[in-house]
User: Fold this.
Amino acid sequence: WSAPDGTLRTAPHPAVDTLRTGEARPADGARIGPRAEIVVPAAADGTVRLDFGPDEYCTIELDPAAGTVTFDRTHASLDTRAHRDRSVAPDAFDDSGRPAVRVFVDGSVVEIFTSAGRSLTSRVYPVAAPDWTVHASADAVVHDLAPAIETVAS
Assistant:
């Protein structure tokens, strides 16, 4: 959609919800496989941290006062070829009733959607294989996701 300032905004396609398997569970301390969705319902100061291994992690920092979501992947991989940077989404929150942040993990891809339609997408290349650990606020939940495409042997 187009925001009042003319910028393009986006949200996950509603069909993504059909990939959820099982019930939502508390995100803090949850172990996830290679596909998951983390939902932070309200914009409050805090951090979502994905721990891939002892020295591999990325963070998603919510700062409602500044109106920003920051994705930090500077420690996401031990592989020296991996990119290490921080991305910031300004004007990230609104009062639409959508979750403050929805984070999708699909293997090495992390995609973040904010309530105001901002999105950040990046590859993280962790060396450690799943299961990975989520650290988040008490109100955050995690959903396991089924593969979107089934591979059929020929």
About this structure: Residues 23 and 143 are 7 Å apart (CA to CA). The mean pLDDT is 94.
